[in-house]
Amino acid sequence: MNIKRVIIVGTMIVVMSFGNSALGDSVANASPVAKWSSTSVSEKDDLLVALNQSSDEELYESLYEGKSLNDIAADHGGDIAEVIQLQMTQLTQQLDNRLHSGSITTEQYAAYKEELKEVVEQSVFTSFG
């Protein structure tokens, strides 16, 4: 897999993950910024908890600075394995929804599912700066 594809797919995974938590399971928003607003500790989503981030803005700034999700987790004592598992769960659910809605075939589902772990792992270790 070439680096350009890794960066594109990694960016898509991050966007889909944020969009999915913002709008529910049925729609992935292409703009994660729309979701981000101040959150208190009691309202943190799973990704913020896994990365040990205090707010959406803190995460956004770190991503904007070009840090990978792994860098962010390492800098703040987060759990990168939990981040990977969270993204795998969310993306698998999205694939399941797409399969059930008929927007992808069973063959496409199987192919996407087979690549999912590798793509997610590469995305969390890729810096975008």
Give a quick precis of the structure:
Keywords: Signal. The protein is mostly helical.
Q: Count the DSSP helices.
A: 6
Give the DSSP E fraction (strand runs of 2 or more residues): under 5%
Main sheet makeup: none
Low-confidence stretches: 18-43
Task: Report the end-to-end length measured between terminal Cα atoms.
Answer: 20 Å
Signal peptide: 1-22
Keywords: Signal
Characterization of the model:
Keywords: Signal. Residues 1-22 form the signal peptide. The protein is mainly α and 129 residues long. It has one domain (3-24, 41-125). The protein is built from six helices and no strands. The protein has helices at 3-23, 46-51, 56-64, 69-76, 80-101, 106-125. Helix 5 runs antiparallel to helix 6 (106-125). The longest helix has 22 residues, at 80-101. The radius of gyration is 14 Å and the shape is elongated. 23% of the residues are buried. Mean pLDDT is 77; it is low at 18-43.
Provide the descriptors you would attach to this structure in a database record.
67% helix; mainly alpha; 6 helices; 129 residues
List the helices and strands and how they pair.
Elements: H1 3-23, H2 46-51, H3 56-64, H4 69-76, H5 80-101, H6 106-125
Helix pairs in contact: 1-6, 5-6
